[in-house]
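User: Fold this; tokens only.

Assistant: Input:
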Amino acid sequence: MIRANETLLVTGGAGFIGSNFVLSWVKAGGRVVNLDLLTYAGNALNLAPLEGDDRYTFVRGDICDAELVNSLLRRYQPRAIVHFAAESHVDRSIVAPDAFIRTNVQGTFVLLEQARLYRQELGEAYRAMFRFLHVSTDEVYGSLAADDPAFCETTPYAPNSPYSASKAGSNHLVRAYFHTYRLPVLTTNCSNNYGPYQFPEKLIPLMILNALEGKPLPVYGDGKNVRDWLYVEDHCAAIRAVLENGRPGETYNIGGSSERANIDVVTAICDLVDEMGPALGAAPRRGLITYVQDRPGHDRRYAMDASKVSGELGWRPVEAFESGLRKTVRWYLEHGEWVNSVRTGAYREWIEKNYAERAEYRQQGTGNRT
């Protein structure tokens, strides 16, 4: 059992979900060593509230660096590794899949192997308590039809993008280390997260910021792709529950029970920004919605059956989608300094490249179909 006052080695703790988890763990009295390379989606400002707190240690480094991982394990002797670090944006994986294979597959392998070696050196009692928690995604299961049942932990893998394939590969490695080496691993597959500190190339923050600034709101295809939305604080609570009481070797699906079509999410954001943000002339922001060419291999629907984590560990999402989205819009409206810090030249170049290539589709008469 991992208690809040114990040390964790967290990978990718400066990213969106990782930083929310680190903040909540330290707030509860725990200690964290955060290993993060600070690539485009990692932001040290996410953890500014922990500056000067001796319960928090930041190490800038690569999870593929076995020597570094080895040294951190032996120096800080964590009771668990919580592995968030990943390349996670599907569109980027289509353009540059090699980075996803390196980080998501090779990086996970390095962590598993170093964890295995470290655990062998622990005394019997600490060896029994050690855990390796691997944070993964619902995308490993592929796509659902409108009337298909939600993904459960035994749903066969059918990844459809380089991103989801790399995460499926990492999941298989984690499972293999349990069955081959008896490394006490835990895997969580979560649905789409949203909330504070999310990098603004993802759907919800991108739409909030574009709506605020009166920019086009690019919606892929017909906008009817469905996702199950999970507020990030609920996800962090689920991870804590799995870390504390999950059964080694098991997988737990974590979902928000909040399926929404993308277009419905975008229109809800438009209405909230109209209500909470500065006026944009007389026209409602729904008029900014622009349909663009769909991305290759775009999965139609995701939905998660979270009955296992609910039944075994007592976890359920607390935040309704409507209230969580309102909190999220308010957070972005109130944190302009953070937004400006992450919208670097590299980020702007990516957004321009990704959506400019789809402009021709928009100009061919798709129009605004809201």
